[in-house]
Design goal:
138 residues; four-stranded antiparallel β-sheet; single chain; 1 helix; mainly beta; three-stranded antiparallel β-sheet
């Protein structure tokens, strides 16, 4: 069996062909932002990369044990003076929806979200019963 190296140029060509087929077929491009999720001793955190987005273009909703993040960003409008012809376009616009199943031992009511430098950070503190505690030995 032989293996072929996959070069960055191959990825760009694949993306160009995918975009061309979608435009010809009328298909809607779907995407979701890249995310990181982790647990700390006192909270759960979700971080989402949204470069070029503003906080008012993103909405967060918690229903039961599911966090849903939705976003809508209009693409830049082309005026007669500034027609954009992209040779590469990787900063997404449009809409997205991304859902996360949350642990049952978090306090939804105390959730906090911040948006800094294109990174959305959502923090859910653990409920008091879920936090580690020291047990004294008698």
């Amino acid at each position: 069996m032989t293996y072929a190296a996959y070069a960055p140029m191959d990825a760009q060509i694949d993306q160009l062909l995918t975009d061309a087929v979608q435009k010809l077929s009328g298909a809607v491009s779907t995407w979701v932002p890249a995310c990181n999720a982790w647990e700390e001793s006192d909270k759960f955190c979700i971080e989402m990369a949204l470069p070029g987005w503003a906080s008012d273009e993103v909405s967060l909703q918690v229903e039961k044990d599911t966090l849903t993040v939705t976003g809508k960003k209009e693409p830049p409008t082309n005026s007669v003076k500034t027609q954009r012809v992209f040779s590469l376009r990787e900063v997404e616009t449009g809409t997205f929806v991304r859902s996360f199943r949350l642990a049952s031992n978090i306090d939804h009511d105390q959730a906090k979200a911040s948006f800094t430098n294109g990174m959305l950070l959502i923090q859910f503190p653990k409920s008091e019963s879920a936090k580690p505690r020291q047990i004294a030995i008698e």
